Automatic annotation (TrEMBL):
Name by which UniProt lists this protein: Acyl-CoA dehydrogenase
Domain Acyl-CoA dehydrogenase/oxidase C-terminal: 229-376
UniProt KW keywords: FAD, Flavoprotein, Oxidoreductase
Family affiliation: Belongs to the acyl-CoA dehydrogenase family.
Reactions it catalyzes: a 2,3-saturated acyl-CoA + A = a 2,3-dehydroacyl-CoA + AH2
Annotated ranges, domain Acyl-CoA dehydrogenase/oxidase N-terminal: 6-118
Coiled-coil residue windows: none
Cross-referenced CDD domains: SCAD_SBCAD
Superkingdom of the organism of origin: Bacteria
GO MF terms held by the record: acyl-CoA dehydrogenase activity; flavin adenine dinucleotide binding
Stored PROSITE patterns: ACYL_COA_DH_1 (PS00072), ACYL_COA_DH_2 (PS00073)
Cofactor needs: FAD
PANTHER family noted in UniProt: ACYL-COA DEHYDROGENASE
């Protein structure tokens, strides 16, 4: 068993860390305050190959793997969780199902421009009345000649409004329940597609989250992803890989909070000595570092399993569960280390704390992760 990263992974980590430090971090607080997505920054991510890390070169990617992708999400999230989740949703939720279930024509038409960073992807599953209960969705798709006509809406769409390509799930056979759901590839310019309300959020504020609306939206039959009625299976399998990306985001948030806390504890003096000299602070840092490393190892294990085409549903749920809880715990402790200053926007830990909370919610709540894990360990 080898826990050492390959030269390729080390190189990718350094490249992403340099990019994150030099180009993402300087404007992270400003973009968070303004709730502003920076398309030029995403374009640069595409130029560096970050938008197509796990996809083969024949589809516009760089031919690396899911571990390298998780490392990239982690490093971006270490300075800006919004940048991390934009890449995560783009790759795991939009790119993965096209790569896994798409036809050759669909891969060339949709996966390639996403991998090259020329187009942004998004994923539409959640509805106002169906979150974790994905089988209760109401968005419908009715056959009409060589098209399907979609009606309904989706909410909490990461990359909503900025995405060019949406993976959307709709009911094609209401009588068949889970087996009556189909996945579609929807372009932003399709007739009947529109972007609705933009959410005002606690955290990840420079990553847009919106409603998307289908009002007799006409989708060509060739844009069915996978087979008719295969939508629920595609949605659930996509979320497994998506959880790896969110686990990596959570690890990055926690690491950024720890880095800031260590630097502050070494510099801040009280009672004539740096506060890091006090066990009350140094033991916090030790616990934070230990939880982060445990979360990182779980995340890397799940990514390695995915890369090697081994079962990883349980491991991805464990990684997301552990990393999400760690991100929340570590960032709260980071604010505590900073004291009153941690509660202000003069330091990044208050932003890290706001950003961390969502990692316990999206890609399946922590309660759903425990449900997934418990079912798998007791079957």
């Amino acid at each position: 068993m080898n826990f050492q990263l390959s030269e390729e992974h080390v190189m990718i980590r350094k490249m992403v860390r340099d990019f994150a430090t030099n180009e993402v971090a300087p404007t992270a607080a400003e973009r968070d305050e303004e709730e502003r997505f920076d398309r030029e920054m995403f374009d640069h991510m595409g130029e560096l190959g970050l938008t197509g890390i796990p996809w083969p070169e024949e589809y516009g990617g760089i031919g690396s793997d899911y571990l390298a992708y998780c490392i990239a999400v982690e490093e971006l999230s270490r300075v800006d969780a919004s940048a991390g989740v934009v890449l995560s949703a783009h790759t795991s939720l939009a790119g993965w199902p096209v790569y896994t279930f798409g036809t050759e024509e669909q891969k060339q038409k949709y996966l390639r421009p996403m991998a090259e960073g020329k187009k942004i992807g998004a994923y539409g599953l959640t509805e106002p009345a169906s979150g974790s209960d994905a089988g209760a969705m109401k968005t419908s798709a009715r056959e009409d000649g060589d098209h399907y006509v979609l009606n309904g809406s989706k909410v909490f769409i990461t990359n909503g409004g900025i995405a060019d390509i949406y993976i959307v799930f709709a009911v094609t056979d209401p009588e068949s329940k889970h087996k009556g759901t189909t996945a579609f590839i929807v372009e932003k310019d399709f007739e009947g597609f529109s972007v609705g309300k933009k959410e005002k959020k606690l955290g990840i504020r420079s990553s847009p989250t919106t409603e998307i609306i289908f009002d007799n939206c006409r989708v060509p039959k060739e844009n069915i992803l996978g087979e008719l009625g295969q939508g629920f299976k595609i949605a659930m399998q996509t979320l497994d890989g998506g959880r790896n990306g969110i686990a990596a985001q959570a690890v990055g948030i926690a690491q950024g909070a720890l880095d800031a806390s260590v630097a502050y504890a070494k510099d801040r003096e009280q009672f004539g000595k740096p506060i890091v000299a006090n066990q009350g602070v140094s033991f916090k840092l030790a616990d934070m570092a230990t939880s982060i490393e445990a979360s990182r190892l779980l995340t890397y294990q799940a990514a390695w399993l995915e890369t090697n085409k081994l079962p990883y549903s349980k491991e991805s749920a464990m990684a997301k569960l552990m990393a999400g809880d760690t991100a929340m715990k570590v960032t709260v402790e980071a604010v505590q280390v900073f004291g009153g200053y941690g509660y202000t926007k003069d330091y990044p830990v208050e932003r890290f704390m706001r950003d961390a909370k969502i990692t316990q919610i999206y890609e399946g709540t922590q309660e759903i992760q425990r449900l997934v894990i418990s079912r798998m360990v007791t079957k």
